[in-house]
Amino acid sequence: MELDWRIVCIGSRFEVSDCAAFLVYEELGQQALPPGVELLDGGLGGLALLPLFEGCAKLVFVDATQGFGAPASQLLLSGAEVAALATPEDGHQAGLPYLLRVAELVVKPLPQIWVLGLEYPWTTQSISLAADFLRTLCSPTRTRVDKALESA
Predict the structure, then answer these.
(1) 115 partner at 20 to 30 Å CA-CA among 5, 49, 101, 152?
(2) Does the bond joining 88 to the residue before it have cis omega, within 30 degrees of 0?
(3) Cα–Cα separations (whole angstroms), residue 32 to 6, 35, 78
(4) Is residue 62 within 8 Å of residue 130, measured between CB atoms?
């Protein structure tokens, strides 16, 4: 059975500037998510995360960012926008952009992909807001609204 949504929180839980996604993962894990939504701690999985692109309609990566916006802000980008940040010279150390670029080449068909970036330094409030945003994004009500809009 294909999942509606897969949320993958990535980064190092041990590095202060990179642990935002893990904090969101912990907060989301405290409450039940809707059926058809899977929450995973992707840690520093790199290319080992490629299998997670399969078996879901929509995939959201949550990751820490720096230099993309105001402190404690959130940024939602498409997977293609983030993949475009990878250059051939970067290689594996490019992190999520590299993973998304490789996925474009080897995973067919790709799910719809988004990246929720959490700008460092974050606050307890910004972590909670990110978790609330993800709950809303993946809610069955939102899915029904999206389907209605697509058919209109």
Answers:
(1) 152
(2) no
(3) 14, 9, 26
(4) yes
